[in-house]
From TrEMBL:
It comes from Methanolobus halotolerans. It is found in: Cytoplasm. InterPro entries: AGPR, AGPR_AS, AGPR_dimerisation_dom, AGPR_type-1, NAD(P)-bd_dom_sf, Semialdehyde_DH_NAD-bd. This is N-acetyl-gamma-glutamyl-phosphate reductase. Residues 3-138 form the Semialdehyde dehydrogenase NAD-binding domain. Belongs to the NAGSA dehydrogenase family. Type 1 subfamily. The active site is at C145.
Length: 337
């Protein structure tokens, strides 16, 4: 069995890791940390875990995590992980960081996040479908939620060198912003409402630019505008891909089916994705249509931000890092209505 520790377990992605681990046959959760809630039962905060997990939050130091765990997941805010990771690495412990701290090269990090990285080091970017090298690694930077849906939506067209520019328009559920209440997530502001934010400057642009440039390093014209919608989970991304030549929907289908043929968690649809069809699951659903009049392909992707966008993807990475089937503990249909 694999002994897993979750650092920052009182938040949404920490809670989701524990929910998903209940169905993982190879994992024991041995530690769930919280600074504020140490000593309190995990199921007091994550009430859906009542009766399934008899564990108390601990305020565990990195040394203790190294002793008791085979793998540690960091589910803490960006900026916090870079002070913890250096004390975890170096021994046998495998580390998966769900924060943004190790996803970008240091220069790109400083530009996107506005401060100097305190622990510049390389990590493998854990977008499994585009990074088969995650297997056997000991340190993974788990991708961001928007970048997961956006990168998977555009990757086949980028790989084919077909993109002249792309505009990602994403709609996220409220859990994307974490557990702390904010003005945006305050019920009267969120319910029956749609809010755009960071119209041209969201920090995730750097992340999917880095990913798409691995496939086509001439691609620079990448735009992104996020929105919050009154859903609890999910990110629907509409990618307007302006192509170098006119394409048919069948041309596009060939590219997507080729790239995602043996990728169990990417479903290339005949129809269009929706948040309901992926809710609670690790799938990224993708649908598309080529514009008959213009050099444009519209691609839509749907993920659950807490699963494929965070904790499910982290477990997919863990499975490969330990030589297990990537589907282990994750092969569930969505909780669609
Ligand atoms: N929510 C999402 O959809 C996604 C989130 N992510 C990333 O995953 C990480 C966790 O996200 P999420 O679960 O939503 O965040 P939350 O805000 O819900 O939870 C974060 C937890 O981290 C702990 N924490 C906060 N500050 C520190 C610190 N300085 N040192 C140690 N622990 C700290 C807190 O626990 P306590 O105060 O009890 O110690 C808190 O409960 C973030 O980096 C986020 O950006 C990535 C993809 C998707
Ligand atoms: C709705 C909402 O507020 N979303 C968050 C996404 C945060 C997140 O998950 O960030 P990482 O993936 O980089 O860790 C935001 O836009 O900042």
């Amino acid at each position: 069995m694999i002994n897993a520790g979750i650092i920052g377990a009182s938040g949404y992605t920490g809670g989701e890791l524990m929910r998903l681990f209940l169905n993982h046959p190879e994992v024991n959760i041995v530690a769930a940390t919280s600074r504020k809630l140490a000593g309190k039962p995990v199921s007091g905060t994550h009430r859906h875990l009542k009766g399934f997990l008899d564990l108390k939050f601990q305020d565990l130091g990195p040394g203790e995590a190294r002793e008791s765990c085979d793998v540690a997941f960091l589910a803490v805010p960006h900026g916090a992980a870079m002070d913890i990771v250096p004390e975890l690495l170096g021994g046998d412990l495998k580390v998966i960081d769900l924060s943004a701290d190790y996803r970008l090269k240091p220069d790109a990090f400083k530009e996107a996040y506005g401060f100097e990285h305190r622990d510049p080091r390389d990590a493998v970017y854990g977008l499994v479908e585009l990074h088969p090298e995650v297997a056997e690694q000991s340190f993974i930077a788990n991708p961001g939620c928007y970048p997961t849906g956006a990168s998977l939506a555009a990757a086949p067209l980028a790989k084919a060198g077909m993109i002249s520019s792309v505009i990602f328009d994403s709609k996220s559920g409220v859990t994307g912003a974490g557990i702390a209440p904010t003005e945006t997530s305050h019920y009267p502001n969120m319910a029956e409402n749609v809010q755009a934010y960071k119209l041209t400057t969201h920090r995730h642009v750097a992340e999917f630019t880095q990913e798409l440039n691995r496939l086509d390093n001439s691609l620079t014209n990448i735009s992104f505008t996020p929105h919050v919608v009154p859903a609890i989970r999910g990110i629907l991304t509409t990618a307007h891909v302006f192509t170098k030549d006119k394409m048919s929907t069948d041309d596009v289908r060939t590219l997507y089916e080729d790239m995602y043929r043996n990728k169990p968690f990417v479903r290339v649809l005949d129809g269009l994705p929706s948040l309901g069809s992926v809710r609670g699951s690790n799938f990224c659903d993708i649908g598309f249509e080529a514009d008959k009049r213009n050099n444009r392909v519209v691609v839509v992707s749907a993920i659950d931000n807490l699963v494929k966008g965070a904790s499910g993807q982290a477990i997919q990475n863990m499975n490969l890092m330990f030589g297990l089937d990537e589907k282990l503990g994750l092969w569930n249909a969505a909780a669609a209505p």
